[in-house]
Amino acid sequence: MEGRTPSAAETLLAGLRELQSKGLLCDAVLAGAPGGKAGAAADETRLPAHQAVLAAASAPLRDFFLDGACNAAAVEKASDDPLLASAPQPQEVRLSGLSQPSDVLPKALSRLYAGGGAAAEGACKEDLAKLSTAWKLPGAARKGAGAAGGAAISGGAADAESVCAGLRQLRVKNQLCDVVVLAGGRRFGAHQAVLAAASAPLRRYIVDKLRELTSQVDSKGGLQGMPGLAAQPLELDLQSISSPEALDLALRHIYGEAAGPTKQPAEAVAQDLRQLASSLELPRLKAFAVGGQADDEPEKEEDQEEEPELPTTATQEGAAEEDTPPPSQAEKPITDLERALYAMRSCRFASTGDVPEAPTIDEEPADKADAKILAKLREAFFERPAWLDQALLKRLPGSTDEAQLLRLLPYVAYQWQDGPWSKAYSRYGWDPREEEEAEEAKTLQVLQFRDPHFRKNDAEAADTGPADCSFRKPPTQKTQLYQLVDIQDDYITSLIDEAELLDCVDKKSGWLPQFVLEVAGDRLKVKSQQLREKIALRASSAASSTGRGGKASGRGAKRRSFAGKSGGRGAGNKAKRTRVGGG
């Protein structure tokens, strides 16, 4: 690689190899004992790996992991999100019949990660040839047997491009995806290991979130026996990015796609793209977003202003040294919004521990405007213990923007990651799963509404500012969140009020029977259609009225202009004034 710049694919694979060497975000183990003896734990070689990488490099391994993920999902029903339907479950790949597993497994893993390595000789070379053939690796015969005397494992640009192509195929098919990224009303499946390998800020964010979730699970020795910090399904909402096209371009870049669009993106997309490139520290993407030209000083300043909009987190204070990025990245100044997002505590429905009781931020905001909004926030959460962000923005002074809200929320609330209150912010110490809170908690449940209008009419989501939280207007996004208490509909209100509580809170339906939520969803589908028909009718009536008025005005103006011809200048002036104000 000396004398040339590494390709995007080579850079990505280098980052993945680094994660694998530290056991970060690994969800698979390659295991083998001498001669394939079962139970020889002392002699067994165990190496952590990422299922997505192994599946991208080898079709047989891909089928193996997908079968395991589908079987686990069928039994546990781990996620009803189609993008996470085949989220990887921790799996072990046990290899038998190897004469020297301690030698061959590291070399085989290096082959799968498109890395280089020393020459394989003797029995090790034979084992490696068998694995390469069994896994159907590209060039297996050539690399496995090697030249006389043992050839080194090549692992160059061609191997990296092949693995990246496999990763892109997995993402396009939503296979083994374990993170959903949202922007502009659209959702994209991705792989945590790939995002973390490509971007240091994303790596810090994912690692910090997983540490928090793992501490709630409180599993000894790692999640289900996985070494290091294992991946768990996550959702990342880029609320400040309004263009899904920009996120799509960024993901294609992250996954090592060499060929970009044939033309520069529109300015709105390019602006979001520059923001993503700067915040996620993706210099090649930034070069594309600014038209391939070097950045000048004003553009750098603009990027620095935009960067806090992204939901990235700072490296956890006191974290292990192996999880921190290089010093140049670790020393980068932390913005107020990044600090607040890192301080935002969260909870999963399945967590058996107490919900967060207090914030991790000790100091009150120094800014007077922030202090005033924080006081209003505390009032809001005193009146009502759980809110979605859009309802909060409606409750707060009109000058409050989303960035300010996100900065201040960690002072007063934690956020639910999943379950009946998914994405809602809850007052510290308030647990909607507790039976004594059930009556109020049922009204604060979050309904995820998918409007069939977008699917039937092949319509695109509209960027019309803050979403309406009361359903007085039809949804502007294909999937929109509503709290039941905010929906202004007498039928739904009476339906929720009269519904009998379940004996035990349910992860999917909360305290309400599932049929109640289904009926509420059906009602919203009808209401959405009715609202759209009313809007179309008003627009049609206005257009029709304007057309009739215009014709009448035209005829009147014509008659008066003839009168003006015979009646002199005064009549002519009158006709002119009528034409201007007619209709």
Extended strand count: 12
Largest sheet report: 4 strands, mixed
**Strand arrangement in the largest pleated sheet:** 7-9-10-8
The value of Rg in angstroms is: 30 Å
> Strand content of the residues, in percent?
5-15%
- Mean pLDDT, to the nearest integer, reads 75
Q: Count of helical segments?
A: 23
Helix content: 40-55%
Structural class: alpha/beta
Question: Termini separation (Å)?
Answer: 75 Å
Unreliable stretches: 36-40, 140-155, 217-227, 292-333, 552-583
Shape: globular
Question: Explain this structure to me?
Answer:
The protein has 583 residues and is an alpha/beta fold. The chain is built from 23 helices and 12 strands. The strands form 4 sheets. The chain has a 4-stranded mixed sheet. A 3-stranded mixed sheet has the order 2-1-3. A hairpin with an 8-residue loop joins strand 9 and strand 10. The longest helix is centred in the C-terminal third of the chain and has 54 residues. The radius of gyration is 30 Å and the shape is globular. It starts with 7 loop residues before the first helix and ends with a helix. The C terminus is likely disordered.
